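Lab channel / #folding
Pinned by the channel admin:
"Please post every new chain as: sequence first, then the structure tokens as a reply. Keep commentary short and put observations after the output so the thread stays searchable."

First post following the new format, from NK:
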Amino acid sequence: MSLSCFVAFQQFKLPPLLPDLLTEFRYSPTMAGSFMSVYALVGLIASVPMGRWLRRHGYRPGLLIGLVAAALGLLIALGLARFTGAMLLARGLEGLTYAIFAIAGPVVATEAARTRDLPLVTGLLAGWIPIGQIGAGLLALALPDWRAIWLLALALTAALAIPSWRYRNHRPAGRAAGSAAKPQPGAKAANLFSAAIFLLWSGQYFAFMTWLTQFLIERHHLDPHRAVLVYLIPVVVLLGFNVITGWALGRGLRVGPALLVCLLLQAGIWASISLLDGLAGLVALVVYGICAGVTPTCLFHLPHLIAANQGTGTRAGPEAFGTLMAGRNIGVFLGPLVLPEILAYSGNWDLAANVIAVATLLAGFIVLLLGRHLRRPQEG
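Reply from TO:
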């Protein structure tokens, strides 16, 4: 869990400090967005082959490779941040760390869980992203500048190397626990549908979270300190609803309807962004945070649900999570880049928000297509 929170902190240490970096280094908006998107590009390339590699070689060498990549990325950024290419390379190395830990973390954590406890474990696992995000935001407020946060991240990398080295070199079994049949084509199709939903949802979420502080400064004229505090509101709510959703899934919450309702609500918030100010804007941020907590918990649970219903085991392995994370990474790549491009074209936030609202609605339509794969599994 600590390793997962670390890589989420690594990724999300950028958005709260983005206005400062734009002021100091004069990055273009597209380049600044690519500093988040490169995480996804690396993950897109690495996720599926990394899932296979981890299955063959075990997790300890993967964790150590990830920490070395993180350290190199942090050192490059600290020394060469004024060069956009160097900063992009640094974030790409951090993205490799994320790609490894995002697959290894869920599989390691769920291997020891009883089948009936999987939804709650999934909810707890989904919390590593907002925990890292909240930590990055609070540190951005507490520390003097961006370099201090990068130095702290370097110290955390060194500290995490010790438990990673001592981690037993677990070599996953060739088939998930409890599996009794070969994978069926329906399982692969369902995992691809799940990846498509994650693509569209993560695209809008990362567009929202990458540019929210800048939006609050430009559109609502908040000072940077207050903008970061407002930015953290949906993230704190999100964290709570990760766990609540995991608990609710274990007690009968249906994944399909929960996903559909949350996607529709988020699309509505995007579509009405020009009307959201004052109390209405605060309520919208809270509702967005609730939906952003429910949605990824359901998505991270889908591979297990599909495996149970399609005859491939009681829980999913690294290859299924690799497919899911590949979809997520495409969305993370596109979201932070597409939003500033639409802004540059239109000159205002409204058109960009409407485009992303449509993408979120499309994710809801794919949930309907996936419905036949979402029968409730038998109790294990």
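NK: Residues 170-181, 376-380 have pLDDT under 50 and may be disordered.
TO: also worth noting, The chain has one domain: 2-169+178-373.
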